[in-house]
Amino acid sequence: MSSLENAYALLIGVGADLPASVRDAAAIAALLSNPEIAGYKKENIHLLTEEQATRDRILNAFDDLIDKVDENASVILFYSGHGGTYSDNDIIELEQGGKNLKSDHENQSHYYWVPNDFDPKNYRTTWLLATELKEKLQKLQTRRLILMLDCCHAEGMTKAGPDISKSTLKERLKNPEDMMHKIDDGRGMSILSSCRAEELSWIIPKDAPHSLFTKCLLEVLQGTHRDDFNEEYVRMTDVINHIMRKVPEIKSIQRPFVTLQMYDDFILSKNTNKNEPITQVADLNAVPSMSKETDAEIVTSFRENHGVNAALFIHGFSGQAHESFGVIPKLLAQDSQMDGWDLFPIGFSENFTPEMGHDIWASPLDLQKLADNIVSSFRYKFENYKRVALIGHSLGGLAVQQAILEMSPEERERISHVIFMGTPHKGLQINSNNSIEKRASDYDRQGSLITKLRQDWSQAFEERMPFKLANAIGTQDATITIDTAFGVFDPSNDILIEGDHFSMVQPEDTHHDGYQLIIKTLTDSQFAIQYTNKEEINLLLGNYDAVVRELWPDRMELGAKGVRNLLFALEGLDRLDDAIELAENKVEESESLHLFGLLAGRVKRRYLQTMKDADGDLSFKLYKKAYDMAVAENNNDQQYFLAINLAFLSLIHEEYRSMMQKYATLSRKLAQQDPFDSIWKAATIAESSMYLADFEAAKEQYAIAAADAGVREKISMHTNAYLAYTTLKQTTDDEFVRFLKRTFLS
C-alpha cells in the first residue's frame, strides 16, 4: 500500500510518571508510518513524547497542521497523559486570596492537558487549556478528524502529581466527558475517550507495554480484531465499535465514550488480515467513501438562545439526528408557544454507521452509545438548563429510558417531560422463522435487555415519575404495535396518533398529530395554556421547577414563606394534589391564619378544575374560618382578601347573590381603608366593584393591579374576574371580557 498523500497524525505521549503513554504514542506512529498497514508519510506524522511533549511544541505542531491540512485531508489526534480540571473560584482563591468568589451558578469548570514541562507554580504559561485546543481545531480546514483521549490513567494516580494548590485545581482529570464537550467544535469531529467520568484507563496486565485502550486500538488498525473482518480498509466506525466493545469485555469498570456526530467515516489504515493483493492508493480521495453526503453540515442545534428550557430530540437508528423528526423542530421554533425553549438533536449522524446499519433495529452496544451520549450531554452540555424535555423516536425511546436510569434522582428532577413515539417498550414476541424479527432478537420480550429495562424502570419509579410522560404509536405502524408499546405506563399516558412508524414524526404542517402531541405535551400545563406571553410563562415554569427541587425534600421543616413558595410552585406545575396535601399537613401542625388561607386557595383551585361540591364546600368553610381568625386578630388586609374570596364562592358555588353582595361590600370598604397600596388591594377593590355593578371602577382598579402583577398573580386575578363576570352577565364575549383578556392574558 503506497502512502496516503493526504493523511496526517499528531501523536502525544507526555511520559514523566506515565511511561506507557510514550510507548502508546510511539507504537501508533510506527503503525501509521508502515506502508503495509497505513502508509502515512513520515513527514505528516508529528510524534511528541517525553521532553518534546511541551506546551509550545504541541501548539507548534497544531500550527503546522493548520498550514498543511486542506479540506480533503484526514487527521488523527492522539493524546496520552494527564488531564486536569479547575473552577473559576480555584483561580480566584489562588490569585486574589479568595476575594469576590463567584456564585455556584457562575462558577464554571475548565479543563486542561498537562504537558511534560508543566510547572505548578507557572500554570498559566505551561498548561494547555481545552479552550486553546478548541481554537486550534476550529482552524483546521478539514472536518475529517478523530481525537483520541487517554487522560485518566490508573498508572500514576498514586504518584506525586502536578499539584497547583490544595484546591480542586490539583485534581487529576476525573471527567473526560465534560472535557470532550468543551473541546468539541460542532463540525463533526469524532472524539473518543478511553473511559467515562470517574473511571480509569487501565494497563492489563500491569507489565503490558500498552494501555488497554491503545492495545485495542492497535488491533483494529491492523484489521486483526475480528476473524470475519473482510473489508479492505479499516474505517472510523471499525475503530470505534471495536474499542467500545472490547475494552469493557476485558475490564468491565472501564467504558470508553464517543461522540456521535461524525462528519465522515474515513479510512485510517489497511486491513492486513485480508488475503488479497494490496491496492495502490496514491491519494486519500481515491479511496471509496462510505459517506453519502460529506459536504452536508453537521446540525448540532435547531435553536439555541441559552434559555432555561431545552427540548432534546433523540432519534432511532434508521436516519440521522437532525432529520428524523422532519420539520417538527422548525415548526416548534416558529410557534410562539415554544418561546423560551432551546431545541437540540441527539443521535448518530448519517456518516456514523451503526453496527447493524441504518435500520429500525440496532445492536445493544449502539443503543448504549446513544444512551451514554444522552446522559453525558444532559450532565455537561446542557447543565445550565433548569428544565429538559426528552423526545425519543423508535429505539431512541429505549435509549432515553436507559439514560434516565443512569441518572441520579437529583438529575431526574431536572427532566420536565418525556415523550416516546413508536418505542417498543415491551419488546417483541420473536418468531425465529421471521427474518425481520431475527434481526431484532436482542429485543425479545423475554430477553435480558428488555426484562432488565422494565424491572429497573419499575423499581426506579415505583412511587412516582418526576416528569410528565406521553407514549404514542402510529395507527398504521406495522412494526411497533399496541401489544409492543402500550401497557407499560399508566394507560392515560398511551396515545394513538395518525401515521406509520416514520410518518408519525414527519409532518407537513402544524395540524399533524405528531406535532400536536409534542406541542401540547410540552405546553399543556393549565397554568401555561391561559397565558399568551409564552416565553415569560416558560421561563417562570423553569424557575418553579428549581423551587420544587430545592424545597420539596425538606418540605415539613419549611417556614411560612418557604411553604408559600413551594405551594405556588407545585400549583404552577399542575401538582395541585401535592400542594393541598402539604398545606393540610401544615395546618395540622399549626392552625395559623396564613396556612388556612393558603389551604383554602388551593382547594378553591381544585374546585374550579373539577367543580365538585365537596371541594366547593371545603373551600368556603376554610375561607370562613380564616376570615373569622382575621377578624379576631384585627388583621385588616387579610380580612378583605378573605372576604372577596367568600364573595366569589357565594356567587359561583353557593349561587347566593345577596351573600355575594354582603361580602363584596365589606371587602371593598376594608380594602379602601388600607393605607398601603398593593396589587391585591387594587384587585380586591376591582372585583368587589364588579360584584356591585360598578364596572368602570372595576376596570380602573384592575388596570392598576395588572401593571405591577406577575404571571401567577395575573392568572389568578383573571380566573376570578372572568368566571364571576360571565356568571353574572351570562355572556362570554363583550367589551368587559375583552378588556380582561387584554389586561391579564397578553
UniProtKB/TrEMBL annotation:
Domain GPI inositol-deacylase PGAP1-like alpha/beta: 312-438
Taxonomy, superkingdom: Bacteria
Domain Peptidase C14 caspase: start-end pairs: 8-259
Single annotated GO MF: hydrolase activity, acting on ester bonds
A Pfam family assignment: PGAP1
GO biological process, one term: proteolysis
InterPro entries listed in its UniProt record: AB_hydrolase_fold, Caspase-related_regulators, Pept_C14_caspase, PGAP1-ab_dom-like, TPR-S
Protein name: PGAP1-like protein
Natural source organism: Nonlabens marinus S1-08
